[in-house]
Amino acid sequence: MLKNASSKYRPFPPVRLPDHQWPNRVLTAPPIWCSVDLRDGNQALAVPMNVSQKLELFDALVKCGFKEIEVGFPAASNTEFAFMRRLIEDNRIPDDVTIQVLVQAREDLIERTVESLVGAKNAIIHLYNSTSPAQRRIVFGLGKDEIVQMARRGAQWIKDRIPRLPGTRVRLEYSPESFSATEVEFALEICTAVMDVWQPTPADRIILNLPDTVEVAMPNVYADQIEWFVHNLPRRDSAIISVHTHNDRGTGVAATELAMLAGAERVEGTLFGNGERTGNLDVVIVALNLYMHGIDPGLEFGDVNALREVYERCTGMTVPARQPYAGELVFTAFSGSHQDAIRKGLRAWEISREKGETTPWDIPYLTLDPGDLGREYREVIRVNSQSGKGGVAYLLESEFGIELPKDMQREFGPIANDEVDRLGREVRATELKAMFWREYVERDTPWHLDQFATEGNNGVVSCRATVTREGKPAAIAGQGNGPIAAFVHALVAGGAPKFEVSHYSEHSLGSGEGAAAIAYIQIRLADGRTRWGAGVDTSIELASIKAVVSALNRG
To answer: Is 80 within 8 Å of 51 (Cβ atoms)?
Structure first.
């Protein structure tokens, strides 16, 4: 890298718009959505989709609710043309869906494009030519007047051929490609010239697509460009302002959202941001950003996992694990403090629902309910060496119904983390349960319970038990105000160190007659140390007695 970057690069000049209004506006409704997965997304693939893959992805886009879908560049190749004809001739396009096709301002390409549309019910012909100073100078070697004339001719060639498409409602979309790098005054001039040819009306509006073809400035500059254009456009009521952002600076989503505040009514983008260079706008992100603010986005992503699978199968691309909303790990917390907050938040939400309350979603670290996207709560928290007691407790409870007392969470959490740290990887819930079983439930040395029986008389419980201590069997007996107290007395009388029970709780691990119960016991030794134990049995009484033995063995 250069020590003096200004010797090679220059800042992008801002738009002179001192009274811009977009910073004070709030989004309250979704835009018109147009998917460009099958065109812009497809041409960005190292191996473009074949016809069957494009058909599968087209059906998925329709299922998501897209009403405008750019299906290709039919003049570019026989595959593109064949796909267009397959859609039309097989009657695969719903009546409320408009297909869009891209074409440069060249007569031979326009001729082929119009041929591809015969029989379609609704179509948008998307005409474009590049307008930025670099494109005019380097690519075309033409002046402004000649670039304007190129766009006017293209619009006229399309208009002249519309009679060849009887029964088809044809709309025109025009893009001054590289709008973001074009002087706003010239972008307005060329768009106005195309409108003069097409003659749109408020009832049949032209689409003026103002693409952030290459991000060359901060998103607020793009928003100013859009607002300036909207404010100065003649016959504003006869045009739909559309945006199509890329992600060269990593701000494609921000640029789109600010452009919507600035007056854009329509948004083009792709699922998960597939596109040239660093990608296109990710429509899923913008739509769900609206959704998390209580705005119906007009698109359905209720099974985002299934949609991701279709996308990855058809395009050969993969969705990164941290991609907002759709990535594998976006509803996953590894940090212990995050896990604890999520666990408490989810429990509070469940309690409010049980009470019939309609409080807004407000869970720490979860901007929306994963269940709304077809994700499951068990995906929310996973455990690795950075995890805390909250994540450990959540997984045991959500996967196996093991509801650890809070103080026991504090004891078992570090034990589990030490084991996970030794393994050096994330652990599954089943592995976590096995750790708990080894540490508590299966602790049978130095004391092991062989037999246990009780009888009561006048509020006093007597117990008799057979235990094995360090391999030697022994019979013990004791009395107390309950089975646990009687057993504690019997153990102490049989040679165990003196201790008392400081906490007891239990619950079922299932339902039905054969369901097991789990008991949690905390004991306090004579020197003040405390230890937890756990026992499992179909008899709650035996589960609690086993928990006492477990705690004693851990003492």
So the answer is: no
235's tokens: 């016959």
Same fold, 32-315 and 447-553: no
DSSP 332-378: -B-SHHHHHHHHHHHHHHHHHHHTT--PPP-BTTBSS-GGGGT--GG
Q: What is the C-alpha separation between 30 and 155, in angstroms, rounded?
A: 29
- Domain 32-315: give its CATH code: 3.20.20.70
CB 57 within 8 A of CB 38: yes
- In the chain (555 residues long), the average pLDDT of successive 10-residue segments reads 94 92 97 97 93 96 98 92 95 98 96 97 97 95 97 98 96 97 98 98 98 96 98 97 97 98 98 95 98 98 96 96 94 82 90 90 93 78 71 86 92 89 86 95 93 91 94 94 95 94 93 84 94 95 96 92
Cα(87)–Cα(79) distance, rounded to whole angstroms? 12
CA 202 → CA 155, 169, 504, distances in Å?
19, 16, 75
Measuring CA to CA, which residue among 431, 407, 452 is closest to residue 549?
452
Residues 6 or more apart in contact with residue 410 via CB below 8 angstroms: 389
CA torsion sign, 297 to 302 to 308 to 311? negative
**The CATH number of domain 447-553, selected from 3.40.50.11550, 3.40.50.150, 3.30.70.330, 3.30.160.270:** 3.30.160.270
* Residue position matching structure tokens 């429990």: 347
Q: Please report, for the chain, the start and end positions of each structural domain, with discontinuous segments joined by +.
A: 32-315, 336-439, 447-553
